[in-house]
Structure formats: structure tokens, C-alpha cells
Amino acid sequence: MQVALVHSLPGRVRFRANPDTLKLCSSSGLAGISRNIADIPGVRSVAFNPRTGSILLYYDSALLDKAGIFGILLHIDMVSLIPVAAPAEKKESPGWSYIGYQLFRFLRPPALKPLFTIVGALSFIFMGLRSLYKLKMDIPLLDGSVILLSLLWKDYKTASTLMMLLKTGQYLEDWARARSRENLAIGISLNVGLVWIRHDGRDEQIPYSLLEKGDLVVLRAGSLIPVDGRVVEGSAMVNESSMTGEPLASSRTIGATVHAGTVIEEGELVVELVRKGEDTRFQKIVQLIEESEAVKAKIESKVNELANKAVPFSFIAAAFAALLKGNLKKAQTILSIDYSCAIKLSTPLVFLSAMREGLQNGVFFKGSAPMEAFAGVDTIVFDKTGTLTKAAPVLLRIIPYNGYESADVLRIAACLEEHFPHPMAKAVVKRALEEGVEHREKHSTVKYIAAHGIATEYEGKHTVIGSRHFISDDEGIDISIASDDEAAAIAEGRSVLYLAREGKMAGLLVIDDPLREEAAEVIAMLRKLGIKRIYLLSGDNKRTTERIARDLGVNGFRGELLPNEKTDLVRALKEKGCSVAVVGDGMNDSPAMSASDVGIAMKDGADLAQSVADITLKDPSLYPLVIARIMSERAMKRIHDNTVAAISINSALILMSFFGNFTTASSVWLHNLTTLAVSLNSMRPLVKE
User: What are the angstrom distances between the C-alpha of 29 and each of 23, 78, 255, 285, 660?
Assistant: First the structure.
């Protein structure tokens, strides 16, 4: 999203965006983005005004700075907020128009061929004259010059052949781009075949394409939800990580809303279709691809510049042929060869093909610019929780007190925690299930105190479980008996839960958020791929951060960081000349990601993190990060190889035309074959399918 700073006061800042873009966005979409931004620590409130394009934001300057907010707004993907219009009519395939063109050439009367050739040549000549008027030496001027010379010599056959080959080249370019885009869109979109619907009390299976608004879609455990809709029957636990970044399933019952792309883990739902998720997502993807193509990589601009600079050399070589050899036919032949076709066509095809190949391997590049940037990155900054760790805590050990046994502590804790699906509660319940500990309900109504703990009457005794602050300060319970065990756990970088009954400590539960198994291997692989510096920046406590940094052998680490402090450290690295990528999954990481050269979001990352990110890992591991690096480097190498090949082969063709006896038609054929070969090399990932 393009924004400009309008006015700023301490703790208050106003930006201006394009009102036309904001007017296209749905109100619910803007509200969702507002909530996501407001969830960033330090942001107090944010308000969009679509009529004026105004974005008013209040923030705590001690936690977040103005530059961090500006960076987030710049990177937010507004395409995802634009409601999808009715599907446009399918465009005619370029293949049919090309076939029609060839049939017309074959069937036209021989006596009228010169006339048709002249009429067909007018568009090429006018484009060449337009370039000449603008004093531009470009491809239209080259093509127009060759065709005009052929007509002046009444060589209609050569002019006709040349125009046919130019149209064939244009068709191949259109086909290649269309295939690349289609493959890329298919890779991202939901691929749904058949769905179950409920009709007149009976369940029947129909093709997804036949679904209509108001249909009742039946979804069972393990099903991917293919539509946006409202639950009208049943209840289920729905994993919405693809939408929210929250890895834990949430309950959905009658009246709740569900979204396409989420998954039912347990239960069964009947959903009234509001909007077909595949169509919605597909349209957004197509817009995203087109928008990302508009943001060209630097290498693409350099290659196009190189191609344009090569055009005058064709004219110079032709002039030498005309002056030194006195052969205008040879000059015409040389003019029919140019460098730019292969160079200009191959570069975007490399990126589109690499984006598709990346998708097949769990990596989504948002355009060519991030791919080029990541190939040049030499420094990677990792977040900890949910990035290097699993964000799935495990209960490491149980320490009982005052006559309780470990099994008693686990049974009581699991009985209380099973009602609240936060990560630490899940760790306790999972351990109880693994050990076969019975934890049937033996308590009255459970009272949950947000960010503190749980209180209830268990078997007639007042029982509490939660944080140190909750047990000691709020409940006034003496926890000194656990002080040594607590200190040991904190020294290890672990978290602790306190369980107390009737005012006395019953047990301490030590919980760990383990490293991803692949973390150390991935870091080693990244170093082999040219990453010189790897840092760990976390909001978690320093001891935990230090332990993980030590285990992984990173170059440096910082713990207990606020979002603006992370951002400042990333900017400091860039000021030292580092090319920086930031890998994270939470809203807290968004400012740092937006400040980096390349922002990379994990699969289960929050919506805002994925919106800000330049690259999204679509696989729930770190291995796609290595793949992203390899894909980026391969793409850049392929562009380099294509450019060298195009320049070398076309230079050889010009020399052969100068010293040999090439005709214009044969040189055009060879030139187009060169373009085709370079393009196929660009599309190798697609050709292999």
C-alpha cells in the first residue's frame, strides 16, 4: 500500500493513502487490518477513512516508533481486501487467433497476396515511425525498417515471412506468459473437486463448480473448508492457521463464520455458502501476480536496459554492410537480427517459472523483486517463538510438594487446563493423555483469569493454577517451597506453572517450547549457501534466548526486545552494509520485517506478518527457507546464462550475415529459434511437468 506521511505529533500520526484503492476495499477487510495493526504492542488504535484516504494512528512512542508503523503500512497487501467482482468472461485463447491467422495466410488468393502483405505491414511500419518520431532506437524501429525495405524492393514473400515469424514470436510469448501465470495461480489456489451438500434432508456429492450461494455444504473431520460461509448445524474444532496464524483449533458452532482454506480437526459442520472460497482466492491471486509483475526486479530493469542499448549496434552493423560492401540486401538481413527479443522475454519467464517451482516446494515469492533480493542476502535475523521453536510447548517435568504425588498434580492440572486451549494448557493435557492419567471433571465451574490462571473448587477444595504473579500476589499463597526449583527452571530457559490447593503449593509444572528439529541443520545449510551472519532477536527472556542461541551457534542474539528495538537493530545492520532478511511469524515481527530487505513469514504466521512478508513459507518447517535461497540463486544464474547466450548467438548471426550469404528469411528463422531456445531454458521448471 502506497502511503505518505501527512502530520505527526508525539503518539499520533496521520498518513494518506490512495482513496481510490481504499474505496475498493471491503469494510470488513479494513476492519480486520485495523484489528491486526492494533494488536501490535505499542499501537493504541487505528482508523481508515476510505473517502479521504486518511489513516489515523495512535501509538505509545516508548514501544513503537513512527518509522516502524510507516514500514508496516507500506508493505500491507491491499489486494486481499478488495471484494471479488463477478467472474469476467473467459478471454479467447491466443492459440485460436493464431490458428485463424495461419489459415487466412494459407487460403488467401495468390493474386491478392501482395495487397494483403502491404495492409498487414502498415501496423509494423507505423510503430517504427512512431519510434523514429520519438528518436528511439528500439525493436519496432528495427522490424518496421526491415519490412519497409522488403516492400520497397517488392520482395513480398520476405516481408510476409518476416511478419508471420514476428506474430509467431508474439504468440509464443503470450503462450509462455499465460502458462506461467496459470501454473502459478493453480499452485496457490484451492484445488477442490467434489463436495458434499445437504439437499432435502439428504447428502449428495456434486462438483465444486456447481455450488451456488445458499447451498448447505457438509464438512467432516479432516475436511478442507472450500467456501466462506455460516454454520447452520453442528459443532467442530477448526484449524484457522492459514487465516489467523493461530496453530490451535478454535470451536465453531451454529451462527459462527468459517473461511475457505481452513481445516476441520474434530466434529462435523453444515455450512451455508456465502462466497465460494476458491473463486475469491483465485481472483486475489491473479491480481497479486499482476501487481507483483508490475514491481520489476532490479535485474529485470538492467536486462531491459541492456537490450535497448544493443539495438543501435544492429543499425551500425547494417550501415557498415551498406557502405563498405554496397549491399543493401545484406544490411536488411542484419537489421532483421536483434538482441532484445530473447533477453526481454526470457527474464520475466525465469521469475514466473521459478515462482511456480517455489510453490511446488513450499515457498511463495510475492513477485520477482523479493526473489532477486533474497539471492543477494548475506544476513538473516530470526525470531524465536514459532520460528526457531515449534510454538507447541511440552510439559518437561512435574515437581510435587506437601505430600502430593506427580500423578496427582498432573491429574488435577489436566482437569483444569483442558477447558482452555492455550499452548501451555495443551501441553499439560497432552502429557496426561500420554501417561494415561484419568482427569475426569471433579470440580465446579472453572473461572479463567486472562493472562493469570484458573481458579475452581476441585473435590471440595479451592484449587488454583497459573503464573507466579497469580498464585503469589493475587491469591496470597506462599510459594517459597518452590523457589529453588523455579530458579533452576528459569536458568534453563523454561517456563513454569504453579498448582496450589487450599492455600498451599501442590506442585510446579516445568514447560519448554522446544526447538524445531531441523533448526540447527537449516542454519548450517544457510551458511553453506553464502549467508555470512545469522542473528536471533526475541521478545522472550534473555536466558531462554541465550540458551537457544548457544544451541544453534548463531553470530549474536538479543532477548526481551520490544518491536521497535528489533526494528532499530535491523536498520543498524543495513546501515553497516548488510543485506538483511527477517524471518518471523507474529505481529511483533511485522515492523522488523517491513524494515528489512526481505521479510519472510512462516506458514502459521499471523495475517499481518504474512501480508507484510515478501516471501511466505507454505510448509510447517524451516526447510523451505533453504529452498527459497536455492531457487533465488538458480533464477539469477539462469538470467545470467540466458543473457550471455542471447548476446553470443545473435552476435554470431550478425557476423555470419555480414560475411556470409544469409537471406533475410533465414536469419529471421534462426533469430526466432534462438529466442525460443532461450525462452524454453527460462521455463525449464514448467517444461519438466
Answer: 11, 9, 20, 16, 65
The strands making up 556-558's β-sheet, listed across from edge to edge, are 363-365, 615-617, 598-601, 580-584, 379-382, 533-537, 556-558
* pLDDT for residue 66 is more than 90: no
| Alpha carbon 90 to its chain's center | 27
SS3 content of the chain, % helix, strand, coil (to 5): 50, 20, 25
Q: Is the pLDDT of residue 634 over 80?
A: yes
Sheet holding 54-59, edge to edge: 3-9, 12-17, 54-59, 43-49
Contact 570, 582 (CB under 8 A): yes
How does pLDDT run across 35-54, given as a tens digit for each residue?
777 767 677 778 887 767 78
Cβ of 2: how many Cβ atoms within 10 Å?
11
CA-to-CA distance for 216 and 540, rounded, in angstroms? 45
Q: Pairing relation of β-strands 227-239 and 263-276? A: antiparallel
Confidence band, pLDDT 50/70/90 cuts, at residue 281: very low
Q: How many CA atoms lie within 13 A of 540 on its CB side?
A: 27
How far apart (Å, rounded) are the C-alpha atoms in residues 578 and 597?
9
- CB atoms under 10 Å from CB of 213, counted, come to 11
Which helix H or strand E contains 683, and what residues bound it? Answer: none
Q: Based on DSSP, count helices (H) and strands (E) in the chain, helices before strands.
A: 25, 24
Compute CA 345 distance to the chain's CA centroid, rounded to the nearest angstrom.
24
State the CB neighbour count (10 A cutoff) for residue 115.
12
Asked whether 652 and 660 are in contact (CB, 8 A), the reply is: no
Predicted confidence (pLDDT) per residue in 245-260, tens digit: 444 456 788 888 787 7
